[in-house]
Amino acid sequence: MAKKYSNKINKIRTFALSLIFVGFIIMYFGIFFRTHPIVMTIFMVLGLLSIIASTVVYFWIGMLSTKAVQVVCPNCNKPTKILGRVDMCMHCREPLTLDPNLEGKDFDENYNRKKPQKNQSN
Hints:
Blueprint: H1 8-31, H2 37-67, E1 69-72, E2 79-82, E3 86-88, E4 95-97
Antiparallel strand pairs: 1-2, 3-4
């Protein structure tokens, strides 16, 4: 079965959103320890740190997104951003590349690595 790929910017945004929900869940668990103020405070602080981490990730991906190359997808004709040598369209998941050496090749996220990895399937 083929691996399901998605756009790098969307992956990082999804991770940041999950950090927010994890932070809220951690804080919610702190409510169960109302009788133990120290434990409740620890859960609240951990939840707050998770939410702050998500803010940092959102800021980082926002800065990265402003530097990303914007192209028009040839499949859906919508503008999308490319991070690295290969990426997927945000809208239709069409593999995109700016490298003429990679045109026509199967999509592989390993093309974004500086040193190509050897195939470990043997």
